[in-house]
Amino acid sequence: MNIEVPLMLLIVLFIGLGILSQWVAAMIKWPAIVVMSIAGLLVGPIFQLVNPEQMMGSELFSTIVSLAVAIILFEGSSNLDYRELPGVSKAIARIITIGAVLAWVMGALAMYFILDLPLSISFVLGGLFIVTGPTVIQPLLKQAKVKNSVNSILKWESIILDPVGPLFALFAFYVFQMIDQGFGLGYFMEYILGFAVAFVLGFGASYLFRWLIKWDFVPQNLMAPVQFVFILLIFSLSDAVLHESGLLAVTIFGLVMARLKNHSLIYKESDHFIDEMTLILVSTVFILITSSLTREVLNEVISWQLVIFCIVMILIIRPAYILLSTINSGIAFKERAFVSFVAPRGIVALAVAEFFAGLFIAQEVEMADHIVPVTFGFVFVTVVIYGFSFKPLSKFLKLSSTEAPGVIIIGENRFSLELAERLQDHEIPVLISDLLNSNPKRAKERGLETFDGNLLSEDERIQTDLTPYNQCLLTTRSYTFNHLAFNEMSQEFGLKNVKMFPYPIDSDKKRRRVEPEIKHHILFDENYTYYWFNLFIDDHEITEVDASESDSITDDDVVLYHIDGNKNVGFKTITEDLNYSTEGVIGILKGAHSFKEKKKNGES
């Protein structure tokens, strides 16, 4: 029962459904791709409300999917950070070469013997299945902050193999074409020519784009649109020479741009544009493909053979090729073991499988209609298993912090040191940093951990293990500095986990100038400024009240934080009160408001 919907409305509805899926996933803390898969299955094969591929037509559908994948690949490759490579480059090089070939061959043989797929389809899908989706890996890395070495390996593997997998698949397709039709030099030349064009376009476009920016030929407000056009042109031109070589071209473009732009602020705006575009495309395209599956094909594919195949790929093949390819790579065994048990597949594998399914169906190859459902089944299983096991496994192997989530405090002063000591008393990790005072002596004297560098520098954060910390408080005397630091640190910890001191001037007129969005991140009480917090601490200390006695807290007190029974700390903001459980403690400044009034009136 497919509902007839105008094409424009169909596309808009799927964009909305994709973003809704991302939002729901964030709320319930599930991997987004799981929610997107469920959404696609519900509107497609389960309730049969709509089949986007049938409504759009195969040509338009595949074009939309291909262009979206090109943008997604560029975004991932251009955001790779070469500063992460020292110490893990050997392991990465081996995984994307020796490991990739082993994964290709072993995966293909598993499909041939377990799923009974033809050898040609097995080797084509074997190439696609070496791809570990960056659209799935990167949210997992943000969810559980693992060690930098593990983070870098998983991120680089997912980005580099995204275009390599389709090229392996394409190579296998051409080889079997030659076997079926007899040896022909034309196939080899076509492949080599496509490969060469992809490299020339990728490298040439990156240097041309940088040259245009360097000599101010592109206005700042047009930088993002021009880069967007470059991506689409590179992909389309390369793809016209050799199908799917466009994936390699845009990845090379992204990799070279990542190297050339050197994290210059000039490129920030265009980077943000591509990042946001990618978020929309990932969710939309995944649901488009999933909802285009049919009940009949799903019923044929879902079987005990598929279950056994997934088990073999997850428990045997992935650990085997990762552990073998990283021998003597300088990476600790438990880190190699963890990497070997993390390989969720994502949108690129599914999108490119759609393309190859069309080629095999056109040639009337047996079981060609199984390609997309098998790929979807494997992608869905890997995302569910790895998505829900990633964080527990990283903690079990002690590759992510097992302590209570810690707090970074930027700004050394009497109040922040008192606050840090109280948190540390509850075994909550605290790191003190102060760029306005490069040598935090008082923090060191109190036995607090300090950071002597510049935490606002991405270079220094990359070289620092920040896995124990998930919140940041900005408590310097400068509101302007705090505001700038807020923008930087929110990229590291997320908006909701970065908070800052109130406006330093005790004036209602000045406070009204604070942007409404920032007010949700202003700490404690807007009537209590940097000056008053520190003046209060000169004569008093932070008082802690048992959460079960929260009724004893009066309007004269300033509430600071609540620490629950699991040592999770939440800080009060001026727009939101803390939710007190019956367990834990509440930190307050007892009688803070009356203290302020007395001081203002000159009373001691």
By secondary-structure content and strand pairing, the structural class works out as: alpha/beta
Strand order of the largest sheet: 3-2-1-4-5
List unreliable stretches of 5+ residues.
Answer: none
Major beta sheet summary? 5 strands, parallel
Please give the number of β-strands: 9
Q: Name the helicity range.
A: 55-70%
Specify Rg, calculated over alpha carbons: 27 Å
- The CA-CA distance between the termini, in Å, is 79 Å
Hey, roughly how much beta strand do the residues contain? Answer: 5-15%
Q: State the helix count.
A: 25
Task: Write up this protein.
The chain is an alpha/beta fold. Helices cover 62% and strands 6% of the residues. It has 25 helices and 9 strands. The strands form 2 sheets. The chain has a 5-stranded parallel β-sheet with strand order 3-2-1-4-5. A 4-stranded antiparallel β-sheet has the order 6-9-7-8, with no helix packed on it. Strand 2, helix 19 and strand 3 form a beta-alpha-beta unit. Helix 4 packs antiparallel against helix 16 and helix 8 packs antiparallel against helix 11. The longest helix has 34 residues. The radius of gyration is 27 Å and the shape is elongated. The mean pLDDT is 81.
